[in-house]
Description:
The complex is a heterotetramer, with 2 copies of chain A (255 residues) and 2 copies of chain C (305 residues).
Chain A: E1 2-15, E2 18-24, H1 27-30, E3 38-41, E4 53-56, E5 59-61, E6 66-72, H2 76-82, E7 89-96, E8 109-115, H3 119-131, E9 135-142, H4 151-155, E10 160-164, E11 171-172, H5 175-181, E12 188-192, H6 195-204, E13 210-213, E14 229-231, E15 238-240, E16 247-249
Parallel strand pairs in A: 8-9, 8-12, 9-10, 10-11, 12-13
Antiparallel strand pairs in A: 1-2, 1-7, 2-6, 3-4, 3-7, 5-6, 13-16, 14-15
Chain C: E1 6-8, E2 11-13, E3 17-19, E4 42-43, E5 60-63, E6 66-69, H1 78-90, E7 96-100, H2 105-114, E8 123-127, H3 138-142, H4 144-157, E9 162-165, H5 173-182, E10 187-190, E11 194-197, E12 199-200, E13 205-206, E14 212-216, H6 221-232, E15 239-242, H7 248-257, E16 261-264, H8 267-270, H9 274-288, H10 294-297
Parallel strand pairs in C: 3-16, 4-7, 7-8, 8-9, 9-10, 10-15, 15-16
Antiparallel strand pairs in C: 1-2, 5-6, 6-14, 11-14, 12-13
One FE2/S2 (inorganic) cluster (FES) is lined by residues 218-221, 223-228, 240, 242 of chain A.
Amino acid sequence: MKVCEAVIDDIKQIARDTMQVHLKVEANILQTIKPGQFVHIQVNNGTEHMLRRPISVANIDQERQLLTIVFKVFGQGTAKLAAYEAEQSINLLIPCGQGYPIEELQIKKALLIGGGIGVPPLYYLARQLAKKNIEIISVLGFQTQADVFYQQDFEAFGQCFVTTMDGSYGYKGVVTDVIKQEHLLFDYYFSCGPTAMLRAVQTELTNYPGYISLEERMGCGIGACYACVVPSKDQATYKKICQDGPVFRANEVSI
Amino acid sequence: MKVCEAVIDDIKQIARDTMQVHLKVEANILQTIKPGQFVHIQVNNGTEHMLRRPISVANIDQERQLLTIVFKVFGQGTAKLAAYEAEQSINLLIPCGQGYPIEELQIKKALLIGGGIGVPPLYYLARQLAKKNIEIISVLGFQTQADVFYQQDFEAFGQCFVTTMDGSYGYKGVVTDVIKQEHLLFDYYFSCGPTAMLRAVQTELTNYPGYISLEERMGCGIGACYACVVPSKDQATYKKICQDGPVFRANEVSI
Amino acid sequence: MSDLTVQLPGLDLKNPIMPASGCFSFGREYSKFYCLSQLGAIMIKAATADKRLGNATPRVAETHAGMLNAIGLQNPGVEAIIDHELPFLQTFDVPVIANVAGSTIEEYEGVARALKRTEAISAIELNISCPNVKEGGVQFGTRPELAAEVTQRVKAASHVPVYVKLSPNVTDIVEIAQAVEQAGADGLTMINTLTGMKIDLKKRQPLLANQVGGLSGPAIKPIAIRMIYQVYQAVDIPIIGMGGITSTDDVIEFLLAGASAVAIGTANFKNPLICSEIIEQLPQALQKYHFASVKDAIGKGHGHG
Amino acid sequence: MSDLTVQLPGLDLKNPIMPASGCFSFGREYSKFYCLSQLGAIMIKAATADKRLGNATPRVAETHAGMLNAIGLQNPGVEAIIDHELPFLQTFDVPVIANVAGSTIEEYEGVARALKRTEAISAIELNISCPNVKEGGVQFGTRPELAAEVTQRVKAASHVPVYVKLSPNVTDIVEIAQAVEQAGADGLTMINTLTGMKIDLKKRQPLLANQVGGLSGPAIKPIAIRMIYQVYQAVDIPIIGMGGITSTDDVIEFLLAGASAVAIGTANFKNPLICSEIIEQLPQALQKYHFASVKDAIGKGHGHG
Ligand SMILES: Cc1cc2nc3c(=O)[nH]c(=O)nc-3n(C[C@H](O)[C@H](O)[C@H](O)COP(=O)(O)OP(=O)(O)OC[C@H]3O[C@@H](n4cnc5c(N)ncnc54)[C@H](O)[C@@H]3O)c2cc1C
Ligand SMILES: Cc1cc2nc3c(=O)[nH]c(=O)nc-3n(C[C@H](O)[C@H](O)[C@H](O)COP(=O)(O)OP(=O)(O)OC[C@H]3O[C@@H](n4cnc5c(N)ncnc54)[C@H](O)[C@@H]3O)c2cc1C
Ligand SMILES: Cc1cc2nc3c(=O)[nH]c(=O)nc-3n(C[C@H](O)[C@H](O)[C@H](O)COP(=O)(O)O)c2cc1C
Ligand SMILES: Cc1cc2nc3c(=O)[nH]c(=O)nc-3n(C[C@H](O)[C@H](O)[C@H](O)COP(=O)(O)O)c2cc1C
Ligand code: FES
Ligand code: FES
């Protein structure tokens, strides 16, 4: 893990309140990053915001030495990040946490299930899976049409279903509805999104091996402050999301 | 008095740690401003700096609708102001306080005595005095050569003596040394600078009518919080520097 | 548009927003920026029996997300305030809350009694929590029995409802709140400033002439919210909340914690229009969080509902 | 180059900079950023008798220039710390200060006694001021007689000097400081966090699962400085200062107020290199303010000299 000042190559809005940023990062750092890992971003200098913001790695372009993040403007910190301009630099801890352990798995057909700002990390995952010639189906859930992004990018890898809560685009309903309706077949699933969605996924897909990526409010982002814990399945211990996660086996944690 | 977002026309360093900024301000506001008044500047948005910074009006260009300020980088707030760039805007309270009451005075020959960042407001004063064909002598004191600025601008109005504490430029010593050595003659003096200098001026020139401009840490900048007081000469009451001053008759206040 | 009104003892508020005492003098200066009749109420600068000059300068210092002040109750004395300041405020349609301070119980009582001769005030804010005067002030705010006594005496001497301003510099704020409630307080205002210090590194001494000063501004908001939340559960009198408010979100946070109205202090210095702007934006903010009115939000941060 | 060393009971410090308890776990994570031997000392996460899971999440919230935490003393228990964490720290050349917590006097005593079997610690920091646990913790820090009792008992059970960590959530910090000094404390560490709250406007409930949390960061620095300044004048034991430090100027301000060394907590989260960077920059900063050494600056904000 490193502290790194990354210059913004470009920053643009790609959906409602949703920003995509390309950051220039040294190749030797980029090489080490696994899908599912995150960067811990300083909002700005000074003392107004003492906590960093965790944002997942959405993609890596080794050739152009770019790291992509996609984030939603939610509160004050992300609003300030959204106001950055190209050529300015932001301070990252990179990389943080454990990614999806795809090297260790024998996968033929992967189901990617993303909700809202849980979609971006799955994109980098999809690219890495595709490199290994793994078949990919994706189900992406959003609130409403204005929120949808990356559909075409996922379609490039295989079947891609988009749902919106209000039915304004694609299927109406939640991601688990689509999975049931479409009788999707797969051997591993990988999911990232709001806790409510992950809980539904965990329950519905209890017979499949899968990985979920969790969110929690963080202090240090590196395992030193015990802010970001989640109980293990048996409730006997806590795992640290920033260090042991954010990716966990679906049956490992109690959410 | 108004709250005003002023766009920076240009900003540049003119001496050691000393910035000059031209701000675009509406003509109808500029028309009301008197030499000696100040603007109360918001450091930035957000909550890190809750107090504004008082900075004197150094010049006004009615034609180009520009207001000039000159400030020294002293602490965190002025450091942040110095980092602004052209086209960005800063928030001002404008105009604040009472200026030099030159309309009411019968002056033939004015002595301007400035020390360090007390020099800028005297420049706008000099311009206004010159318009009234008043003869002007200036004595400008700085720490050292690297700090000197505006010498030529004052020379355009008449005799101008520059002193530095370490003698690295112009006369060596304090402004009052020059005034004595050069046997300067004048009927009114106008002084702005560090309190120690003003005290010396007050004492040395006790037989002359004069005006001094004071500094104090401010809260509101408009007379509402009682932060910025100075005792009246008889110590019986307090004057508010932001509202009753910053310009006072030299014999009016006890510094 | 959402209903912004709040009815409190002696105070019929158009909206829950008022400037905090000491940050708004007697209104004249801010009246140049907007019409004071827009305000829910005005809390004026502390009044003592006689004129006070206050502390030496420097009196303020900036801190991270806040400031320190040690004004030391500079004011022209209660009689001068009645004669020269309140008439100006009476030209506006806005309730005035007089902040009453003193060094002894007798002084507090005397100020309250003196105020009887004016119709210009709707309530008294009893300032037993000013950390910036050598004697009195803060002790009354930190000892429940003293707080109760001064409350009772001032209440008896007053013709208008009395709100007691609590000091946060205490181990147990609930204990003090309950003591003044039992002593007859009509309401509480909280919080006053926390005692702090800044040292001038070059001069090697405290930056403020008074050495210590009161910390205010966004830095202290979490402490204010916590104290109001705790006190709301322990008393039945209304609370006017303050401490670090700079936005409509902050106002709603105070309402949820249990404040019935709020005061804004330090933020006026950063933005002299803040009270006016927040009043204008409040209906929209209430809507955003699905509150039908200000009253609908009060205390709603306690349990679900 | 200026002399950065400081000698305190049990602690021979290369420099006065150490990470604060709870913000640095047991050092492993930060050892990836710099060599821990650079540090003056390390204050490790609180140890209780048995393993504790701590509070539910969310456990932290951001506030203006600060944060709230309610971790709730999650730790693997003193035995596991001795066996699994301290050996790692022993690989560095840095004194370790063990933070001792508990719900009862007996638990505090037990933890101190358990620590006797390790050589890996140079001092104990007695945490009588944690606001985030239901029982114990904070009461010990707010009542002088309880503070004195737990100090005396832990002191008797310990083989190393005991520094008592004071809570700022009190009316009179000097009274507590004097009580623990008399009870045998070798030093003080101050301040712990101030109790605060943040409310989630959408959920209409306190944001932290524990409702209240401890406020830390630059927001509280003026309170820390004031308390250290006051306590320094009233006690003869050394103070390790903390609360909002983010820069060398802050370190010097704490030294001037009367701290002999300082700890850095929250700022590690913003910049994991902060302790290392401050250590590097400190000689230059001391020079700027004309101090020949760290020792030369301690207490120099009191009167001229
Ligand atoms: C491992 C991880 C990966 C993430 N990846 C992404 C991503 O790729 N894109 C994206 O848009 N969002 C992502 N999030 C969520 C993102 O971190 C929050 O939306 C963001 O921190 C909110 O900050 P704010 O300044 O807008 O809100 P504020 O309310 O101002 O934040 C205040 C504090 O709360 C924390 N916080 C608030 N909401 C959340 C949340 N949902 N999760 C964690 N911390 C929160 C902030 O980090 C900050 O410390 C991720 C979260 C985690 C834990
Ligand atoms: C009426 C008036 C006119 C001024 N005009 C000028 C000018 O034209 N050019 C210029 O360079 N300076 C001027 N000053 C001084 C200038 O305001 C301070 O240097 C500046 O506020 C320091 O801010 P900072 O952020 O650098 O320091 P910080 O130490 O970060 O400031 C902290 C707080 O202290 C206040 N403060 C610190 N030093 C002073 C000071 N000397 N006077 C008043 N407040 C202070 C700041 O305003 C702020 O509230 C003037 C001051 C006054 C009162
Ligand atoms: C400069 C200044 C002067 C103050 N004077 C008084 C006062 O006279 N009486 C009083 O009760 N409170 C006084 N206060 C406290 C405020 O009324 C308020 O309680 C406190 O500042 C917290 O609110 P804020 O964070 O919005 O400023 C003063 C505060 C400041 C900053
Ligand atoms: C996340 C977090 C956890 C903490 N845990 C402990 C603890 O276990 N024991 C303790 O004595 N103090 C604990 N503290 C308090 C710090 O040690 C320190 O006293 C306080 O945060 C003030 O310093 P700061 O402003 O530099 O953070 C904790 C603080 C934080 C932010
Ligand atoms: S954020 Fe500190 S342990 Fe995870
Ligand atoms: S700064 Fe508020 S009265 Fe002058």
